[in-house]
Amino acid sequence: MALTASRLVMTKFLRLGNHKGVAIVSRHCFHRTAIMGVTDAEFTAAKDRVGTLTQDPGNEVKLKMYALFKQVTVGKCNAPKPGAFDFVGKAKWSAWNDLGDMTKDDARQKYVDVVDDLVANDPGAQASAPAAATASQSDTAGSSVGGYENLKVSVDRGVCTIMMNRPKKKNALNRETYEEIIKALDSSGKDDSVVFSVLTGAGDFYSGGNDLNNFMSITPDTMKQAAREGGELLQRFVAAFIDFPKPLVAAVNGPAVGIPVTSLALCDVVYATDRATFHTPFSSLGQSPEACSSYLFPQIMGQAKANEVLLFGRKLTAQEAYDRGLVTEVFPDATFQQEIEKKFNEFAKLPRQSLRLSKNLIRGAEREKLHQVNKEECELLEERWTSEECIQAIMDFFASKSKL
Amino acid sequence: MALTASRLVMTKFLRLGNHKGVAIVSRHCFHRTAIMGVTDAEFTAAKDRVGTLTQDPGNEVKLKMYALFKQVTVGKCNAPKPGAFDFVGKAKWSAWNDLGDMTKDDARQKYVDVVDDLVANDPGAQASAPAAATASQSDTAGSSVGGYENLKVSVDRGVCTIMMNRPKKKNALNRETYEEIIKALDSSGKDDSVVFSVLTGAGDFYSGGNDLNNFMSITPDTMKQAAREGGELLQRFVAAFIDFPKPLVAAVNGPAVGIPVTSLALCDVVYATDRATFHTPFSSLGQSPEACSSYLFPQIMGQAKANEVLLFGRKLTAQEAYDRGLVTEVFPDATFQQEIEKKFNEFAKLPRQSLRLSKNLIRGAEREKLHQVNKEECELLEERWTSEECIQAIMDFFASKSKL
Amino acid sequence: MALTASRLVMTKFLRLGNHKGVAIVSRHCFHRTAIMGVTDAEFTAAKDRVGTLTQDPGNEVKLKMYALFKQVTVGKCNAPKPGAFDFVGKAKWSAWNDLGDMTKDDARQKYVDVVDDLVANDPGAQASAPAAATASQSDTAGSSVGGYENLKVSVDRGVCTIMMNRPKKKNALNRETYEEIIKALDSSGKDDSVVFSVLTGAGDFYSGGNDLNNFMSITPDTMKQAAREGGELLQRFVAAFIDFPKPLVAAVNGPAVGIPVTSLALCDVVYATDRATFHTPFSSLGQSPEACSSYLFPQIMGQAKANEVLLFGRKLTAQEAYDRGLVTEVFPDATFQQEIEKKFNEFAKLPRQSLRLSKNLIRGAEREKLHQVNKEECELLEERWTSEECIQAIMDFFASKSKL
C-alpha cells in the first residue's frame, strides 16, 4: 500500500544498518540477524529463502518479519522502549511488543507463512502478470523512447504516452520516478512531433503515490536535510506540470493516492475508468496538501467539497470525482482504453500551434500564482515532515500495519 | 418569519413610544392603548392576556393586532396617511387601512383568535418542545461553556459545538447573538483543546437570519448612525469567519435565510439535513449580498447559478445546494445527527496541527481578498439601509405581512 | 453553417473581383463568368436565375457552383495549383479539382439542382417562415426600439429584449450585428426604464457565431489590417458585456456556436431550451478562445471540463451545459418561452437599484481582470488569424464543405 509525500520522510526511520543496538532489517537482514541457532527446519529454510528474494518486500512486511523473528528467537518482548527520537527503534520495538504473549510456535508458523507468500509473489516467478501484458500490448503502437527505468514512454502519431511502469509497486513514485516524470514532461514539451502528452499507469493502478523506499539512506541526523531535498524535488515535480506547454491529459486507469490525485488539477483533461478511486489522506499522516491542490481544488469543487477531501481525507469514487469536476469523463473499465484512444486520435489531428497557444492562454493567467502556491505548499510540507506530529502519525500508521 | 441583514434597520421603524401621534405598540402596548371602554368581555380578557405573554410576538403580529384593535375601537381607518419619512406611522396606518370595511365584530373575533394563538404558543406553557429537547440532549455529552445567552456552546472530545439557541425565534440573529458568535469563534479558535468547531441551530431551524428586534432603540433621526453600527457589526461578524484558524463545519439542521446562508461559503465543510432550504432574498428587500458571497458564490457555483441566487433570490433545496457545491453532503433528516456525529468523531482524531496548517494554507491564499470584499459589501449595505428603495421594499414586505 | 471568430478573416480569402487570374465569384458572378456559350437550356436558365437571388448563398455554396460551372464549361480541372499564399485561388482550385472526372452532364445536372434549391429557399418566397412568426409574436408586447437592422430590440415593463434577428442566417454575427449589439447594450444600460436586458435569437437558432460574409472587401494584401480591425471589434464587443451595468440574461432559444457560447460566461443568468447545444470549435479552426472564456470557463466548470470544451471542441448538450454550470436552468422547448417570461415578470418587479448595485458588486471584483484577459485573448486571435495554421485549417474546412 503506497502513500503520499510522507513516505519521503518515513522511509528514513526504517533505514537499517548503522543504528546502535538495533538489528538490521535490510533486504538481506533476515539471515544476517539469525545469529541464534534455530531448531525448526522449516523456519531455517524460510529464513534462507529470504535471501533469494529479488524484490524488497517493503517496510511493513519487514517490520512484521522482524517482530516474528524476535518472538521466535527471544520470546516475548523484553527490551526497554526506545527514546522519543529513536524512530526506527520505536517502530521495531512496537511491532515486537505488539505480539505480546504469542508462542514461539505460532510466531514460527506465521514467519514461514509470510516468507512463503513473498516467494510465491516474487516477480521472477511471474513474468507473465497482467500488468506486464498491458505494458507489452502498448509496445505494438508507437516508438518507445529510451532512457527511462521506471516509466514507459512512447510517441505515436503526435501523442506522447508517459506510463508509470512499476505495476508490482502500484506505480508508487520513488525518487527516480519523480525525476523521470520531470524529464519526460520536459522532453515531450520540447519535442515538435508531440501534439500533447498523456500520463497513465501500467497495470491495475494509476499510482499509489510516494514510494516507501525513497530515501533509504536517510538517518534521523539528516532528517532536516532530507526534508529540504524532498521539498525541493516535490517543487520541481509540480513545476514541471505547471509549465508544461502543451495539453496534458491524465488517463486514470485505476486507483490513485496522494500526489497522483492532487496533480490531476494541473492536467488539462482527465479521463478515468470507473474502477478509479481518488484518495488524499494528508491529515491522517500529519501532512498538508500539495501540487497546488490547496488553491485549485476549492476552485474546481467549491470549498465545501474540496475541504472534505483536503482536510478530512474523503476518498472519492470515479463518479464523485466527475461530479466534483476533477474528472472530465468516466468510462466503463472494459472500454476505457478504446474510448480514450479514439479521442486521442481525433485530438492529435488538431492544429498544434492553436492547442499550444490556447493552453498557454488558459493556464498562463494563473501560472505565477500557481508557482507561488507550489512554493508555499512545499515549505509547509518541509516543516511538517520534521514535526513531532507528522512523525507520530506515520509511526502510528506503521504500527497498525505491522500488526499481524 | 425572519429575514436578512435588513432587519437591523427595519426594526427601528417599528420602534415604539416616543413617536408623535402614533399609538405605542410595544410588548405591553395593548392594554395601555385600550383607552376606550370595550363592551365584549372576551375582547377585554384577550387584551388583558396580552400582558401575560413572556415573549415578544414579533412586529408582524403586533402590527396585525394594532390594526384590529383600532378597527374594534375606532372602526374603519379615518387617520390621514403619514408623511413619507414617518416609517413606523406608515406601516401601522397601512395595516389598519388595509382592513377596509371589516366590521367591529369581525375584527374583535380575529383579535381574540390572534391572542389565543399567542398564548397557546407561549414558551412558559410548553417547556418540553422538541427544540428544547434537542438542546437538552446535547447536554449529556461534553462540557457546556458558560457566558452565552443566545448560544449553547459546548466542547466534547475536541469538537466545539456553537449552537444558535433561540429556537422559538427560528434562531434569528439579534445583535447579542452576532456578538456571541464572534466571541465563541474567537474563544474556540484559541482553545487548545478544540480541534475544530461546528456551527448549528437548536430546534427545527438552522437560522432565520437577522432578527427584527435588533435595534429597538433606533429612531429615524439616528438612521445613518444605526446603519453605520450595523455595518460595523456585520463586518466584524464576517471577519470572525474569515480569520477562524481551524476547520469550521456547518451542520445545517433546517431552513436557513440570509446571512446564515451566505456565511456557509466561509465555512470549510457544510453538512445539511434534507429538510434544509437556503434562501437569500436580498434584492426583494432592496439590499445586496454579504459574507463575501458576492465573490465566493460565483466561484463555487459558477456565475449563472450564483447570480440567480444572489440577484433574483432563488430559494434552493438541500439537493440543489449540494449540486451547486454550497453543501458538502446531504443526509436524511432522521439520521442527520447520527451521521454527522460519526464523522466528527473521526475528524477529531486527526492531527490537529496538520488540520490547522492545511486550513490556513487553503484559506490563506484568499484571506486578504476576502477581507477586502467584506469591507466593500458592508459599505454597500450601509448605503442600501438608508436608501429610499430599501426602506420602501421593507415597508412593502411588512404591509403584506400585516394583512390578515 | 456558421462558425467562430475565424470568419472575420476567412471571408477575405473568398473575396472576389480584383484578384488576378481568378474568376469572380460574387453575388452576380455566375452570369458574368459564363463567357462561353452553353448549349443546355436548363443550365442557361439556372445560370440566369442566379442573378435573381436576393440573398447571398454563402461562400460554400458559391465554391460548389464555381466548381460545377468550371466542370461544365471547361471539363476536368486543368489549371495549375495556385501558390501557397493565394488563398482564394487555392480554395476555388481545390473545389474544382475535387470534382475529378465528373462528366459535364453530371456537373450540369448538379449545378441546376443547386440553383433550384437556392431559388426555392429564397426569403422573398417564404415570408411566413416559423422564425419570422416568432419575431412578429414578440411584436405584440412592448415597444419596439428603432435603429437596428440586424436586431429586434424592444422594451416591455422594464425588460429590454435584444433579439438577434437574422433567422435565415442562423443569427450569425456579421460586422453590423456586432456593432448593433454593442449599441443595444450601451443604450439599454443607460435607459432608466430598463431593469435588466435579455439576449436571445429569432427563430430556431440562438446564434451560429461569426458570419462568413463579414469582410467581403478584404484582400490578402490587407490581411494584417483586417485582423487588427477584427480584433478591435471583438474587444469592444466583449467589453460591452463586461461593463454592462445591470443584470444581463441570456435566453438560449436554440443551438449556439462560437462567441455566442463563450459570451454566456459574461451574462449573469442563462436559461436554455433543451434543444440548445453549445459548440466552440476554436482549435479545429486554428484559433483560440475569446470573450474571457479562457479565464471564466475553468472557474465555472473546473479545468478538466473547461479544457475539453476550449481545447478539444467538445460540443455540449443543454443538460451538459447545465451540469457544468454554464447554464442556470434548462426548460423543455415547448414551454421555454412561457417559463422565462414568467420569471422575467417577477424579476422586473425587484428594486432596480439593488439589482444594479449587487450586479456591480459581484462583477466589479473581477472587472479589471476581465478587461485584461479580453485584451490578451484578442491579441492572440489577431496573431492566429494571420497564421499559416489558421488559414490552412479554414481552407480545409471549406474544401470539405465545397465537396458535393
What does this 3D model show about the protein?
Three copies of one chain form a homotrimer. Chain A is an alpha/beta fold and 404 residues long. Chain A folds into two domains: 7-126 and 394-402, Acyl-CoA Binding Protein (Up-down Bundle), CATH 1.20.80.10; 130-392, 2-enoyl-CoA Hydratase, Chain A, domain 1. The first copy, chain A, has helices at residues 7-13, 29-33, 41-50, 59-73, 87-97, 104-120, 130-137, 175-190, 223-242, 259-262, 293-301, 303-310, 318-323, 336-347, 352-385, 388-402, and strands spanning 143-145, 151-156, 159-164, 196-201, 248-252, 256-257, 269-273, 277-279, 316-317, 329-331. In chain A, the strands form two sheets. In chain A, strands 1-2-3-4-5-7-10 form a seven-stranded mixed β-sheet, with helices on both faces. A three-stranded mixed β-sheet of chain A has the order 6-8-9. In chain A, helix 8 (175-190) runs parallel beside helix 9 (223-242). Chain A is globular and about 70 Å long. In chain A, 52% of the residues are buried. Chains B and C meet through helix 11, helix 12, helix 15 and helix 16 of B and helix 11, helix 14 and helix 15 of C.
Keyword list:
peroxisome (chains A, B, C), 10 strands, 10% strand, alpha/beta, 16 helices, globular, Acyl-CoA Binding Protein, Delta(3),Delta(2)-enoyl-CoA isomerase (chains A, B, C), 2-enoyl-CoA Hydratase, Chain A, domain 1, homotrimer, ECH/Chromodomain_protein (chains A, B, C)
